[in-house]
Amino acid sequence: MKIQPNSKLLMIGDSITDCGRGRPIGEAAFNALGDGYVNLINAFLTASSPAARLRIINMGVGGNTVRDLAARWNSDVIALNPEWLSIMIGINDVWRQFDARLQTETHISLEEYGHTLEGLIRTVQPQLRGLVLMTPFFIEPNRSDPMRAMMDQYGAVVRELAQRYGAILVDTQAAFDSVLTTLHPMALANDRVHPNTTGHMILARAFLKAVDYVW
Amino acid sequence: MKIQPNSKLLMIGDSITDCGRGRPIGEAAFNALGDGYVNLINAFLTASSPAARLRIINMGVGGNTVRDLAARWNSDVIALNPEWLSIMIGINDVWRQFDARLQTETHISLEEYGHTLEGLIRTVQPQLRGLVLMTPFFIEPNRSDPMRAMMDQYGAVVRELAQRYGAILVDTQAAFDSVLTTLHPMALANDRVHPNTTGHMILARAFLKAVDYVW
Amino acid sequence: MKIQPNSKLLMIGDSITDCGRGRPIGEAAFNALGDGYVNLINAFLTASSPAARLRIINMGVGGNTVRDLAARWNSDVIALNPEWLSIMIGINDVWRQFDARLQTETHISLEEYGHTLEGLIRTVQPQLRGLVLMTPFFIEPNRSDPMRAMMDQYGAVVRELAQRYGAILVDTQAAFDSVLTTLHPMALANDRVHPNTTGHMILARAFLKAVDYVW
Amino acid sequence: MKIQPNSKLLMIGDSITDCGRGRPIGEAAFNALGDGYVNLINAFLTASSPAARLRIINMGVGGNTVRDLAARWNSDVIALNPEWLSIMIGINDVWRQFDARLQTETHISLEEYGHTLEGLIRTVQPQLRGLVLMTPFFIEPNRSDPMRAMMDQYGAVVRELAQRYGAILVDTQAAFDSVLTTLHPMALANDRVHPNTTGHMILARAFLKAVDYVW
Amino acid sequence: MKIQPNSKLLMIGDSITDCGRGRPIGEAAFNALGDGYVNLINAFLTASSPAARLRIINMGVGGNTVRDLAARWNSDVIALNPEWLSIMIGINDVWRQFDARLQTETHISLEEYGHTLEGLIRTVQPQLRGLVLMTPFFIEPNRSDPMRAMMDQYGAVVRELAQRYGAILVDTQAAFDSVLTTLHPMALANDRVHPNTTGHMILARAFLKAVDYVW
Amino acid sequence: MKIQPNSKLLMIGDSITDCGRGRPIGEAAFNALGDGYVNLINAFLTASSPAARLRIINMGVGGNTVRDLAARWNSDVIALNPEWLSIMIGINDVWRQFDARLQTETHISLEEYGHTLEGLIRTVQPQLRGLVLMTPFFIEPNRSDPMRAMMDQYGAVVRELAQRYGAILVDTQAAFDSVLTTLHPMALANDRVHPNTTGHMILARAFLKAVDYVW
Amino acid sequence: MKIQPNSKLLMIGDSITDCGRGRPIGEAAFNALGDGYVNLINAFLTASSPAARLRIINMGVGGNTVRDLAARWNSDVIALNPEWLSIMIGINDVWRQFDARLQTETHISLEEYGHTLEGLIRTVQPQLRGLVLMTPFFIEPNRSDPMRAMMDQYGAVVRELAQRYGAILVDTQAAFDSVLTTLHPMALANDRVHPNTTGHMILARAFLKAVDYVW
Amino acid sequence: MKIQPNSKLLMIGDSITDCGRGRPIGEAAFNALGDGYVNLINAFLTASSPAARLRIINMGVGGNTVRDLAARWNSDVIALNPEWLSIMIGINDVWRQFDARLQTETHISLEEYGHTLEGLIRTVQPQLRGLVLMTPFFIEPNRSDPMRAMMDQYGAVVRELAQRYGAILVDTQAAFDSVLTTLHPMALANDRVHPNTTGHMILARAFLKAVDYVW
Questions:
Q1: Closest CA relative to residue C120, chosen from C13, C9, C6, C39
Q2: ∠ CA G127-G131-G134 to the nearest 5 degrees?
Q3: Any idea where the domains of chain E sit in the sequence?
């Protein structure tokens, strides 16, 4: 697996990452990783490779956009000195443009999104051994749905940044899309955003495959 | 307005109708109409025509399919002797086929749906002065979404039954569709099923227009 | 309709306006408008004219008098830069003189009421495109009831200020009076102050008619 | 005082009597008399005449009309063998005609009221040493208010029955009226029905004066 | 009655006075007088003499000793400018010596008690129109019980101070003693300190008699 | 110790025994012995003699009198086949005569008490290996207090029955009395009935000494 | 994978299986599978093979022993007609002998365990397409710990029955043992019985490997 | 007994000591000693020697290590001026190394443990009349269990410090070990750390024997 033994992996994001994690730090020692994909990844790694001593920290915060990440980047990422970092952000950046269409001050434009995310990467990368970028997603198979279409644009930015900075890419949207040929979104998430355990397993598997984890 | 003064109007359906109504009878006297479209219709009618003395009873039950309506038709409709009746059912009949795809015993086929609904209408119509049939809906503008496509089929059954039995038709799906050209579903209902107050206002307006209510 | 597309309308007042709104800002984006007339007005406008993009903000606070409005006028009105503003205040200014008759420091005299309200109007009007003044009300048909009589005096001040400053007047008392010829106050509000949904619909209709809203 | 030492006094009525009493029997032994006039009367009698050993039982039930009293008369009055009985009923009999105007099956007509109440009296009087009839009341000084006007009619029935059956009359409406020349109803009860402690003290005093209690 | 119309009467003390009053000020306007003797006195005075406009403020705090009163005397008494003041303190001063016998820092000696209470009186008396001193009490008929014996000593201090400063004395212990010839303490207060409604009625009557209230 | 290894000891009584035990059977296996003297006795015996395998069952019920014990004797004692039995009953039998003085139907006379208790003993003794009778108590050093005086009479009955039937006597009143020469009742129980942990330790010690437990 | 497409797999057991599942049937449709290994297995299978349409039902009940399974075998297994069945039982059968050592009626001997479990298998096997037997486990690496030693005996019975009846064996104890060479039990379960997510992942993996699931 | 009459004994430690004590000071006067061994010791001493006037203060805090004790030593020990002090610390110092193996910053090495504990002793001893050192414990009879083995090392440090500084030693591990020859750990504590009442009684007895308490 790409992540070296004894590494500390910090995973940051929004409510999909957060999932009820402990505060101020969400960490496995006290079962405080929440109950989403971060918790599943930790369970996988500890169950199959306990000797690797991988330490996972969940720093997701519900409702966050990339602008919120920037505001807490120093305290919540830099200061914690992770060797590995994963970022999954952008869902709220897009969502607010549809469920809060008149509150334009809460909207994060594609430009601000890309610019800000790139800035965060540049700040942190020098101190990392590995970086994982996870695309945002919308559990909606209809690519012409305006919110799905916009989410795909934001996902493209992540894909591009992964390439530019040599990060590992986790294409979460693709992972969901392959299941959506069989399942209706209602079988994964009523609001097409917050997945049930099956949806989090899809995320965890996509992450683990991207880091060459062997089952 | 088509509904005669001094009438009792019973409104039956699923969670969209229920909306936290009082038990066992949901009635305005004690603010027990719930907080959905039934409550709004009552407020409209009382505010603008208090002298008409229209009595509204909410008999919605969350999660109900047409099969559930049949099981409680005698106690919850016939025995209450309404002069007017509105029915909005079918959302769960369709939904279970997508969010509980393997639990086939909870699915209501198009055939069972039409057959059962027609039976209910035939049983009650002789004692009514007026019948209102409201189509089920799915707040999804993409007509090729499988759940929307299936909902349209169930709605067509309602449209046909309204014509066959001379009932007033409320095409709730059409009412939502006209707003969805401007608004994304996320602005009305996260799960595209349970609307916010704006969505209930759309339902109430559609109903009131169908009965020739004058604002 | 008089309110221009893309306007931000701020509605301020006491508990009738508040109705459990979100804090610190009550706004429709997250269903935080409370469940009173403000919420109904928003639902009306969004349901029938979604393209007008009217943004409504509820800044009501339960128990407020005009003296309380003055204390938070800068932070809760001026700083939020509304294009339109509605004010409904005065019920507590009068009420305290009857339910807290000995706590005279909580009473707002007619003079203080008029003087303060006029000051608030003068401060904010230059930055507004439109101002709506709603009279306070008491759901009591007996005009010789002392509290109703006093409320009418405070309402007269509002009527006069509306004329002097060219504001749109919403005569809420008149709206209730026309229904009270048919309904006893007990059918609208046990305490003759806090209305049920029918009462809030009466307020919403009065407001919408005053701004030439077309149903 | 008219009530003999060692008597058991049962007080029955609606929510004004109930006031959160214990179930199934509300009795002072375990502080289960509720917190209304019944509790105050017990406190008065025990504090000033503990040796008289007067036992008070509260059998009020919120929402009751005289029709409800009739349905539980055997179990809740006859079977408990009181020596003295007080009855205060009628507020809901009238109230429903105003706050539930369309639910006519909940209205108790003046005729049914008088007829039923008289029947109850005739059934129980033979086993009593003393009977106290308390009029219903409405804390509304305006005698032309329709609900007050109707309450006065029901009160007149009580007055007449008291005379016909030699019962002690407690004119609660008169007791409130004398205070209402100074206080607005808002100082006693927001809904003009459920009094604060001052209102319950007015009821207790009226009762105690009627039975010649010496302070 | 000795208390002049339009007076403000502030009543201070410990949990017997407090009884769940509102914070920061316990006042009748909003039913915040608690449910003890203060509330009863207010109900008496308002019910029988509403025109006298007596304003009562409850400033009791559970657990207080005279040392605690001194610490909040400025904010809770002086700053509120009462015309009349009642003080009932001393129960905890004594009690702690029996239920917290080893925590001697919580004990208030007879000397500190008298000295502090006198200081409070001297500070406030110049601004008062009337002062009422209520003795502390212990609902224990056995005068040789050590806690009763000590309470009698503290009560004697109050009696002496009332005489020295011309205050009205309310001998609450005597009021309870006269009832205890008939009733066991268990009929008034399980812990012989916190009375039920009957016990509070005893306190209210003792106070009202002392100020020549006419029933 | 008198209780043989491998015995089952059932302890029955009122709230002092109950202390929040599990239902329907209060047993140590699942920490369901409550938190009173029964729990302490179990902890003592298990901690110092785990090999003795003494099984303790708590069948106390709050509020019980000897009349209540009789009503559940078959299901709660006989059917459970204990080898040893302890009974502590009588506090409520006496208490009701003081805190519910007018509810005479709840009073258990000395005669009924003795007669009933003796009947229970005669029914169960043939199947027992050992019987322990614990006197009721009142944590009141003043022997002329009427409730204490009456409790002593009931205790005398227990003492006499212990002698007549060869039972082991636990004189709980004497155990408390010896401590009350130093401590005021307030240091053990605010209501002089329900002890704190120190009081339960006194009960546990008295029991253990009576069965010759060696520390 | 050994489990055929379109199969219904019922998983029965004790609290490790239950994990807060829905009642009366725990099924994935409404996220009612609990949050233990059953839920993880369902997430795995749905995420990677949605087209296989495997339906999983969780019928675990906390605290159950094999004796409890027998009592509900007809209603909870036979009547639900599963094609596949997994059983994991025995932990409480052993545990009670250590934490409730004196309550021998709750102990399930090795003989009763084997006999009963075999009877259940024989009753259900004819109607199954596949049977999975999971050993009970104790997360204790010290094989000479008496509870671990006894658990190993019960596990041996399961191993033997799997062979005799051609069932698929899941050796959960072996799965835990291999991790316990690296991790202390405290890293998996404070009480060495109820695992955290890592422990449930170990169970899920062991199950999936046994049925030849391909990741 | 070694502890002199009128002494104040402060007991500090982790959750075993804390057990839900009052805040900020846990003291017997208001039943705030928690429900663990500290409470039992107080009950013993007060029940059998009330005249000795021993005052016990519980300053345990759940989760504490010796590093946490150092951080609050001044405010929680020195400033409270105890005559006697007991310390039981070390369980979490060891535990974290097993249940939070990757969070090495929470681990307290044997060296830091001994060094810090000795520093605390040296700081406080000059102002004490007596010091009691209680070893940490792990309710695990298998001495080769890694956590037990490590706990024994930390216990050895306590034993050595007790000798070096002339403190009274309470060997809690030995006390548990003698019972564990008969009982499985599951009969005392599910997690082998937090004991039930029997376990706390074992701790209380060990303490009391060490200070020569006579039963």
A1: C13
A2: 145
A3: 8-210
Contact H136, H151 (CB under 8 A): yes
Pair A143, A149: CB distance under 8 Å: yes
- Is H115 a catalytic site residue? no
Identity of the residue numbered D106: T
- Say how far apart CA F192 and CA F7 lie, in whole Å: 33
**Exposure string over D72-100, b if 16+ CB within 10 A, otherwise e:** ebeebbeeeebbbbbbbbbbbbbbbbbbb
Q: How close, in Å, is residue D54 to chain F by CA atoms?
A: 8
Is the confidence at residue G105, as pLDDT, over 90? yes
Q: What are the two backbone dihedrals, phi and then psi, of residue B103, each rounded to the nearest 5 degrees?
A: -90, 70
pLDDT (mean) for G48-68: 97
C-alpha separations of H162 from A104, G42, H213 in Å: 68, 56, 19
Determine whether G191 is an active site residue.
yes
Question: Please, what is the end-to-end C-alpha distance for chain H in angstroms?
Answer: 10
Contacts H28 to E, Cβ<8 Å: 102
pTM listed for this prediction: 0.95
Q: State the virtual CA torsion across B142, B145, B147, B149 in degrees, nearest 10.
A: 70
Report in angstroms the alpha-carbon separations of B38 from B20, C40, G9: 11, 14, 43
Contacts with B100 from chain G: Cβ below 8 Å: 29-30
- Sequence-separated (6 or more) residues with CB below 8 Å from residue F82: F8, F9, F10, F57, F128
* pLDDT score for A67: 98
Tokens of residue B145, six digits: 């979404």
In the predicted model, what is the mean pLDDT of residues G175-183?
A: 97
Disruptive mutation site among H201, H212, H213 for chain F (greatest number of F CBs within 10 Å): H201
Q: What is the DSSP letter of B167?
A: P
The residue of chain B nearest to residue C46, with distances taken between CA atoms, is B198
Q: Is B139 left (phi over 0), alpha (psi -120 to 50) or beta?
A: beta
Below-50 pLDDT ranges, chain E: none
| Long-range contacts of H73-79, Cβ-Cβ distance < 8 Å, separation of 24 or more | H73/H120, H73/H123, H73/H124, H76/H12, H77/H10, H77/H12, H77/H120, H77/H124, H78/H123, H78/H124, H78/H127
Q: Do residues F203 and F197 lie in contact, with contact meaning Cβ atoms separated by under 8 Å?
A: no
Q: Two tokens at G16?
A: 């490790």
Per-residue confidence at C42, pLDDT binned at 50, 70, 90? very high
**Neighbors of chain G by Cβ distance (3+ pairs < 8 Å):** A, B, F, H
Nearest CA-CA partner of D59 in D82, D43, D40? D82
Q: What is the pLDDT of residues F41-97, one digit of tens each?
A: 999 999 999 999 999 999 999 999 999 999 999 999 999 999 999 999 999 999 999
CA atoms within 13 A on the CB side of D28: 35
Residue type at G190?
N
- Cβ distance F119 to F70 under 8 Å? yes
Contact by Cβ (8 Å): B12, B56: no
Q: How confident is the model at residue H168 (pLDDT cuts 50, 70, 90)?
A: very high
Structure tokens at A21: 């994690």
Stretches where chain A sits below pLDDT 50 are: none
Average pLDDT, chain D: 97
Q: Which CATH superfamily is domain H8-210 in?
A: SGNH hydrolase (3.40.50.1110)
**Could you report the predicted ipTM of this complex, rounded to two decimals?**
0.96
Nearest by CB to G182, from A31, A50, A215: name it.
A50
Contacts of A20 (CB under 8 A, 6+ apart): A34, A35
Total residue length of chain H: 215
Is H144 in the active site?
no
B11: which DSSP letter?
A: E
Alpha carbon distance, N-terminus to C-terminus of chain B = 10
